[in-house]
């Protein structure tokens, strides 16, 4: 039902971006700057590429933050976007890596073309 809210052409363009997100976010970061916290989630900036794209990691104390409607995750990413606009003034895309207990649970992105709505995949690791 949610996919009806996103135009077909946008959904077609979204898949390569999400695939790229999975590749980019797969590497571990050695240093990440804490940007802010919100309801049990800490947002860390991993990098800002050419002032247009940012990679962030959300470390959560509850994997449920990455599943379902993700309202609190959306709020946190919106706040992070406001903070990042100072360091990356022309930001158009943010990729998100969501972890719980140092294990990847979520990979996604938000983009200006999508009205900053976060799109992603919730995939808890086996045995989680």
Oligomeric form? single chain
Strand content: 25-35%
Helix content: 25-40%
* Radius of gyration, CA atoms, in whole angstroms: 14 Å
Number of strands: 6
Descriptive overview:
By secondary structure, the chain is α+β, with helices and mostly antiparallel strands. 28% of the residues lie in helices and 34% in strands. The chain contains two helices and six strands, in the order αβββαβββ. A six-stranded mixed beta sheet has the order 1-2-3-4-5-6, sandwiched between helices. Helix 2 links the parallel strand 3 (53-60) and strand 4 (93-100). The longest helix is centred in the N-terminal third of the chain and has 19 residues, at 8-26.
Q: What attributes characterize this protein structure?
A:
128 residues; alpha+beta; 28% helix
Short précis:
With 128 residues, the chain is an alpha+beta fold.
Task: Note the topology.
Layout: H1 8-26, E1 33-38, E2 41-49, E3 53-60, H2 71-87, E4 93-100, E5 103-111, E6 119-122
Parallel strand pairs: 3-4
Antiparallel strand pairs: 1-2, 2-3, 4-5, 5-6
């Amino acid at each position: 039902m949610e996919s009806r809210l996103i135009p077909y052409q946008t959904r077609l363009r979204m898949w390569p971006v999400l695939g790229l997100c999975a590749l980019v976010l797969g590497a571990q970061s050695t240093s990440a700057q804490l940007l802010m916290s919100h309801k049990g989630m800490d947002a860390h900036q991993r990098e800002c590429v050419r002032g247009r794209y940012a990679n962030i990691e959300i470390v959560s104390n509850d994997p449920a933050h990455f599943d379902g409607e993700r309202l609190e995750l959306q709020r946190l990413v919106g706040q992070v976007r406001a903070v990042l606009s100072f360091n990356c003034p022309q930001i158009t895309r943010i990729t998100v890596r969501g972890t719980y207990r140092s294990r990847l649970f979520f990979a996604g992105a938000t983009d200006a073309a999508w009205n900053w709505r976060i799109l992603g995949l919730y995939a808890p690791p086996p045995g989680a």
